[in-house]
Amino acid sequence: MNGKVEINQLTVSYYGDEVVSDVSCSFDAGNLIGIVGPNGAGKSTMMKAALGLIPKDRGHVEIGGKPIHRVRKEFAYVPQRNNIDWDFPIIVKDVVLLGTYPHLGLFKRPRKKDREWAMECLERVGMEEFCDRQIAELSGGQQQRVFLARTLAQKANYFFLDEPFVGIDVGSEEVIITILKELRDQGKTIFVVHHDLSKVENYFDDLILINKELYGAGPVNKVFQPENMEKCYKMRIGLSPSLGVEV
């Protein structure tokens, strides 16, 4: 599957207050798309509502012209680290093996080839030597790499990652962004909720700029402009390729 992602008039409320308001945008397949905005802007809420993980007031999302609920096997989701129970007693290779389950069918158990594939995915993120460790024993960066391996095991075409770089080491961040760019180059489509504006131009092809409502969506070089950022963040922001971001 290799189709456009379309978000149409997505609106979400908590206790009567709109936190995502009438967001519409679309992106071609094979792009790495950042979702940025200030704290509390609705970035994570928009992603979860788009995937049908939380209720929405209105709007719909299509992938390749099909409603999101009809293409669940086509996308993989990595939640924020603070939404994961890291104390759950499971070893690393079994976390990754869970990624093969959507393709197994009801009541089927993973086979030898599924276990071998899970190990290949662990090798790709450089975590094969930790395969028998409890997930709780790993550092934040290592845990995030294991969860990326799980998404690779799903053989998805669309990836949705919520703040994957928060609280991890520089080495793990480099491994993850390198793999995400490789997936993009293979024709996969990746959405990433992100907070570090200084890396936007290096990391992403396209950008969604949101603060409850949409302030821009499209190629980074068009959206990531001072006037758009200042409207969204409601403060003066200087953008410089050499200096990064100045607030």
From TrEMBL:
<dbReference type="InterPro" id="IPR003593">
    <property type="entry name" value="AAA+_ATPase"/>
</dbReference>
<keyword id="KW-0813">Transport</keyword>
<keyword id="KW-0547">Nucleotide-binding</keyword>
<keyword id="KW-0067">ATP-binding</keyword>
<feature type="domain" description="ABC transporter">
    <location>
        <begin position="5"/>
        <end position="237"/>
    </location>
</feature>
<dbReference type="GO" id="GO:0016887">
    <property type="term" value="F:ATP hydrolysis activity"/>
</dbReference>
<dbReference type="InterPro" id="IPR003439">
    <property type="entry name" value="ABC_transporter-like_ATP-bd"/>
</dbReference>
<comment type="similarity">
    <text>Belongs to the ABC transporter superfamily.</text>
</comment>
<dbReference type="InterPro" id="IPR027417">
    <property type="entry name" value="P-loop_NTPase"/>
</dbReference>
<dbReference type="Pfam" id="PF00005">
    <property type="entry name" value="ABC_tran"/>
</dbReference>
<dbReference type="InterPro" id="IPR050153">
    <property type="entry name" value="Metal_Ion_Import_ABC"/>
</dbReference>
<dbReference type="GO" id="GO:0005524">
    <property type="term" value="F:ATP binding"/>
</dbReference>
<dbReference type="InterPro" id="IPR017871">
    <property type="entry name" value="ABC_transporter-like_CS"/>
</dbReference>
<protein>
    <submittedName>
        <fullName>Metal ABC transporter ATP-binding protein</fullName>
    </submittedName>
</protein>
